[in-house]
Amino acid sequence: MANASTSAADESSSILPHKSLYEAVEAGDLNTVKVLLERNPNDVRAKINMIGENALHVAVLAEKEKIVEELMKLMSKEDLEMKTNTGYTAFDLAALNGKIDMAKLMLEKNKDFYHKKW
Length: 118
Description:
The protein is mainly alpha-helical. Helix content is 57%, strand content 0%. The chain has a single domain (18-115), classed as Serine Threonine Protein Phosphatase 5, Tetratricopeptide repeat, CATH 1.25.40.20. It is built from seven helices and no strands. The longest helix is centred in the N-terminal third of the chain and has 14 residues, at 2-15.
């Protein structure tokens, strides 16, 4: 039982530094997102909430297309394959939620999604 609470505490402390990024993405504040990622470019790959989403996952679910476009510029093909704790990529979330334009952007960068098996 102590391991579960220790694990949750570890995860919570690992996302705390990313609270500002999470809030900026969720709010659609593109300028703040750009500033935060200029300061810490690797944060584009960081899990920024308790369910293991990165900034791209959050932007897709929050329907922030301009932020999705900006994040796509900073992410590699492999970065797009990052999954949430429940196993979803940002492409999965876009496709499942009918965000066709966002899904197309991701397909342009990572053609492997064409062969995705659901």
